[in-house]
Amino acid sequence: MVKPFLALFFVLSFLGMAFNVGAEEQSFEELVAELPDTNFKTLPALLDKFAEQDDPRTAILLTNLLGGDVYYHPRSQQVITMTKVQGERQFIDVLTSEVIAEPSGVRLRKVRVNNSVRSHIRQLQAQQNISDSNPDVRLKAVKNLLSDVDQISPQLLANRLQKEQDSDIHALLSAIAALHELDSGDESKQLDAINTLRGNLQPDVRIALMQLQQRDALPETVRDALNSTLAGIETQRKWYGWAENIFFGVSMGSVLLLAAIGLAITFGVMGVINMAHGEMIMLGAYTTYVIQQAFPGLIEYSLLMAVPAAFLVSGFVGIVIERSVIQFLKGRPLETLLATFGISLILQQLVRTVFSPLNRQVAAPEWMSGSLQINPVFSVTYNRLYIILFSLTVFFALMIFLKKSSLGLHVRAVAQNRDMARALSVKSNWVDAATFGLGSGIAGVAGVVLSQLTNVGPNLGQSYIIDSFLVVVFGGVASLWGTLVSAMTLGIVNKFLEPVTGPVLATIIVLVGLVFFIQKRPMGLFPQKGRAE
Amino acid sequence: MLAKLMRLSSVQRVVSILAIVGIYVILANTLFPEGSFFHVSSYSVNLLGKYLCYALLALALDLVWGYCGILSLGHGAFFALGGYAMGMYLMRQIGDRGVYGNPELPDFMVFLNWDSLPWFWQGSDSFVWMIAMVVLAPGLLAYVFGAMAFRSRVSGVYLSIMTQAMTYALMLAFFRNEMGFGGNNGMTDFKDILGFSLQSDTTRLVLFGLTVVILAAAYYLCDRIVTCKAGKIITAIRDSESRVRFVGYNSASYKVFLFTFSAVLAGIAGALYVPQVGIINPGEFSPINSIEIVIWVAIGGRGTLYGAIIGAVVVSFAKTRLTGIMPEAWLFALGGLFVLVTLLLPKGLVGLFDKRFPAKKNTTAQENAA
């Protein structure tokens, strides 16, 4: 006789459980039905109940509430969101998530929210987001929490900590937990928390620790741990600050390298100072602009097209200049300097007349924007990263070209001894034209790169010509390695001076330093081997 | 009279032409009434004064480039330094008539909330001190720069680029407000010099006359330098420096002397220029200005002192005219001139003239220059 009773008991208790669940957790539909009857005081409690549910519609509802877009029908009590999509009002039933026609004949009543409700909603959203299934959403939500750790209750946090699989997010969550503990007042908990935060580079963690340090009543042990942890964080920050400076320096150096390397070739091989070199860079930048204008749909590929185009345009102009002017001024470097300066003025004015004296906008493709976040205090932007890689590629390609190809061989032969090369039937005239074209073409490529970093205007070249000369002079004429080393050195030195002295003074210091350097080693860092002149 | 002119030496020729022009302009401006055919307007006097300052500057550059082969692309810096020395003095003369009415500090310092004069402005209200600074500031810079460069035998294009870097660095420095020279805006709104109003026609005439006299004196001095024994050595350095060195001369000290002297001349030109145009700003340091000086000399004919003067006046006149009619065309013209002169007229306008009237042989071996 026991069995039926037991069975009945089980059935009853199951029923009871089911009933209980129903009483505690109302369904989404029931909660929505309560929305019209709320006021500022009761709304937060109702929203908490929403949050306890795992209904995907809740997130949308919360967002719309935050925007003040939730209404209800005064008679049917139907809850509707009204949003503007491209200027048209769009009505959506909250329960079915379907677009409905505008309810006619009645004025919809708004579910009103005030500031305290809004901040409550934001908290709820944060909590919702940290349990989102998408790790990116979770990461963002957790990062937001870090700036205001009181937004989340310790229980909820402990819950998430257990469930979280992603190691990055887990680390952030434990940092938040540790920040909670910092305020607990319990010495051993505080010590644990401080140890957890050791080496954490999040700016918010550092601020929280510094705030704790300001407090008077701290146990000795806690204060010691705090001081050492903060000192450790500061050292790390300093190291990463250096790393960032070096990265910026190298990226600036690689721009200088691109700008100067063409000059190093023409100067080294032909002994020609080309003052119009900066304008070759400018032409390259304008080529990029023209290509983007010509193919507005292909911005993503515009740079890939611009590189060969700029090489050809600038290279062609270079060859024309060489054939029409420079070849007649052989062996008269100062005259060459003046004539090429004249050419640079003409080219500048030409661009001003054709395009306008104003700067032109060159768009950056999608893949060039954004940055690679290595840790909270150190990130590298993609455009600079690509520029470094690109300029090194150009450098080594040029190196291989000069070392391996037959034209490269002739170029080097003419550079070392023009007369001897001619005697061995190298056509030095032809080599000159090709060299000049090559140097100018590379300047054009540099222009493509610069169009991504600075304004494209008629004066673009002028601002780089002096820097380029300095790089060449510093590195030693006709030494490609010298150009590489000196470009990187100048770039890095500049970036390290800048925060201390400001950009203008940094430039001046570098200039003056170089003047002194030339006193000591007039032939540059890597002088060409040979008999002294 | 023309025939008589032809028989004179080049110094006498230039000095007398300058004297004639100067006296004529001053008389024509004061004696003839406005509207008369012979009248020279105050505007023209002012413009001519400006050109003559340029001529002095070109003379200074020609001295080092034409006779010693030092192509300085930074002579504008010395010019601007002289100008700034004068500008500081004029600034202090404004006194409490400035916008802020501060009797001690120039307006831009009040604007920057400075409460006292920086050390390098001490004494700037004295005329004698100003004259000293006009000579010393560019002279000292040129001496230090030249001593360093020439003693370590930096020459040719390297030197040219270094001079350009120098003026570029100075331009950047003077653009800074913290330098204490008025930053971007430079100095302007000058009122008077030695108590005479800069706006009055008489002061302008006097300044013009002074420019003529100083130009003539500078021409005489330069001519003495290039014709004396040291001048022969200087020319020899231009043509073959190593040979001069091997013969036993210390070529560096000749170059340092010449470079410093030339910088002082450029500074004086700047000091004369500022009260006549009424403004000095960091733009004067910009490399393009220095390049323009080079083109004056190249077009006039380097290696002949009077060629520099002709070049400066002709090109500046053309610039005034052309920028008035077609502002766009000026850079085309300037650039084209550079190319054409270097390709076709290595001796400049004077070369053309000399070919037709081969007079005296005082320009030697220009072909080997550079």
Question: What is this structure, in a nutshell?
Answer:
Chain A is mainly alpha-helical and 533 residues long. Helices cover 68% and strands 5% of the residues of chain A.
Helix and strand arrangement:
The complex is a heterodimer of chains A (533) and B (370).
Chain A: H1 2-24, H2 28-34, H3 43-52, H4 57-66, E1 70-72, E2 79-85, E3 88-93, E4 99-100, E5 109-110, H5 115-130, H6 135-147, H7 154-163, H8 167-182, H9 187-197, H10 203-214, H11 220-270, H12 277-294, H13 299-324, H14 333-355, E6 371-375, E7 378-381, H15 382-404, H16 406-416, H17 418-423, H18 428-450, H19 462-475, H20 480-501, H21 503-520
Antiparallel strand pairs in A: 1-2, 1-5, 2-3, 3-4, 6-7
Chain B: H1 2-7, H2 10-30, H3 42-68, H4 75-94, H5 107-111, H6 127-151, H7 156-175, E1 187-188, E2 192-193, E3 196-197, H8 201-227, H9 229-239, H10 241-247, H11 251-277, E4 279-280, H12 287-300, H13 305-325, H14 329-344, H15 348-356
Antiparallel strand pairs in B: 1-4, 2-3
GO molecular function (chain A): transmembrane transporter activity
Pfam family, one (chain A): BPD_transp_2
Membrane topology (chain A): Multi-pass membrane protein
- Please give the number of β-strands of chain A: 7
User: Considering DSSP H and I runs of 4 or more, what fraction of the residues of chain A is helical?
Assistant: 55-70%
Topology order of chain B in helix (H) and strand (E) letters: HHHHHHHEEEHHHHEHHHH
Which structural class should the secondary elements of chain B be placed in? mainly alpha
Distance between the termini of chain A: 121 Å
Number of helices of chain B: 15
Oligomer: heterodimer
Profile the largest sheet of chain B.
2 strands, antiparallel
Mean pLDDT reading of chain B? 87
Give the C-alpha Rg of chain B.
21 Å
Strand numbers in spatial order across the main sheet of chain A = 4-3-2-1-5
Query: Which strand-content bin applies to the residues of chain A?
Result: 5-15%
Shape of chain B: globular
- Which structural category do the helix and sheet elements of chain A fall into? mainly alpha
Uncertain ranges of chain B: 359-370
At CATH level 2, the architecture of the largest domain in chain A is: Orthogonal Bundle
Main beta sheet of chain A: 5 strands, antiparallel
Distance separating the two termini of chain B: 38 Å
Number of domains of chain A: 3
- Measured as a percent range, the helix fraction of chain B is 55-70%
Average pLDDT figure of chain A: 81
